[in-house]
Fold:
Amino acid sequence: MRKPHQCPDCRKLTQKVHDYRLQKIQHTQVFGRNTLLFYRKRRYICEDRQCRKRFYEDNSVVERYQRQSIEYNQALSIELIHGKNFKDVADRFMTSPTTVMRRFDQISSSKLKEATELPKVIAIDEYKGDTGGEKYQTIIADPIERRPIEILKDRKKETLKEYLRQHGDKVEVVVMDMSQSFKAAVDQALGGPIIVADRFHFVAIFIGHSKR
Structure:
C-alpha cells in the first residue's frame, strides 16, 4: 500500500512513486520446500524541485543490500545456536558456508550486545566455529525468547565460569548437555542452579506449564 515517505535528503514527505523494481529474495522453507519471494518494491521520488531524490520504500521484508528476507536471517541466526558447524547450517538453508560465516560474524560483532545481566533461564552449548584460533566456541542463549545472548571465544571451563560470575547473578535454570567442564563451571560460578540436561524436554515442560 502506498503511503507517505520522508525524503532521506531534504526530509520532506512524498507519495509520488518513481518506478517499481522486482527483487528475488531467498526465504525460509514453507512446508519443507525452499521458497523464493518476488518483491515488487516501490521507488519514490521527492516532489521538491530542488531535491528530486529517488529512494526505496520502507519495508518489513528485506533489509537494504540483502538477498535474503529478514525472517530468513532471523531463522539462520537461531539455527547457528543448534547447528553442528557452518557447513551443516549452510546445507539446511540452501546457501554457502561463507554466507553462514558472515552471519556468524555479524552476530558476534554487532548483533550481540554484551549482556550486563543474564535472564533467569539460559542455555549453554558448544559450537564448531573455527574462529579466533579456537576450533570450538561456547554460545549462551535465551531458550525462552529463542535468541542468542553471547558467543564466548572458546569452550574452556575457566572462560565460561568467569563469564557466568560476571553476569549470572539472576540465573536459576541452565539448559545444557552434561559436559563435565560445563557442569563444573556452572556449579562453581552460580552455586548450584537447576540444570536441565535436555533442551527439548525443557521446551516441552515450559509449554505444558504455560497452558495450565
